[in-house]
Amino acid sequence: QVRLVESGGGLVQAGGSLRLSCAASGSIFRIDAMGWYRQAPGKERALVAVITSGGVTNYADSVKGRFTISRDSAKNTVYLQMISLKPEDTAVYYCHAEGLSLITGSIDSWGQGTQVTVSS
Q1: From CA 99, how far away is CA 88, in angstroms rounded?
Q2: 81: left (phi over 0), alpha (psi -120 to 50) or beta
Q3: CB of 50 within 8 A of CB of 63?
Q4: What pLDDT, on the 0 to 100 scale, is given for residue 102?
Q5: Mean pLDDT of successive 10-residue segments in the chain (120 residues)?
Q6: CA-based angle 20:21:23, to the nearest 5?
Q7: What is the pLDDT of residue 88?
Q8: How far apart are CA 25 and CA 99, in angstroms?
Q9: What's the CA gap between 83 and 18, in Å, rounded?
Q10: What separation in angstroms does the CA of 74 have from each of 14, 18, 102, 119?
Q11: Is-contact 48 38, C-beta < 8 A?
């Protein structure tokens, strides 16, 4: 079993910044990719950013230039630095991890989500 614990969400004014963190723990043999998704009320969950074990990153067009994803492989932790936040960034942000578990085989895990609210 692999557990993802997120932190760093909160309420911020438009133009402000937040940094999200997500730490993976459990029977991890290898993490291939970690990423952030978000779900706003009435909308489907969508990719925000992802980073592979090789450091390759991919971002949603709406966050390019404002959000930066990074990872600490030794700690199995991924970060999302968000600047110039807009009200439309308001959503529940979920961490996701893919990889290989020592016990269960493949890892395809989600965190519990952290709320980010941007006021105008």
Answers
A1: 31
A2: beta
A3: no
A4: 84
A5: 94 98 95 97 97 97 98 96 98 97 91 97
A6: 160
A7: 97
A8: 12
A9: 7
A10: 34, 23, 17, 35
A11: yes
Note whether 117 and 10 are within 8 A (CB). yes
Rounded to 5 degrees, φ, ψ at 60 are -65, 145
Whats the size of the chain, residue-wise? 120
What pLDDT does residue 104 have?
83
Residue 59 half-sphere exposure toward CB, CA atoms < 13 A: 13
Contact 91/116 with Cβ under 8 angstroms?
Answer: yes
- CA distance linking residue 54 with residue 51, whole number of Å: 8
Secondary structure of the chain in HEC code, one letter for each residue: CEEEEEECCEEEECCCCEEEEEEEEECEEEEEEEEEEEECCCCCCEEEEEEECCCCEEECHHHCCCEEEEEEHHHCEEEEEECCCCHHHCEEEEEEEEEEECCCEEEEEECCCEEEEEEC
Beta-bridge mates of residue 6:
22
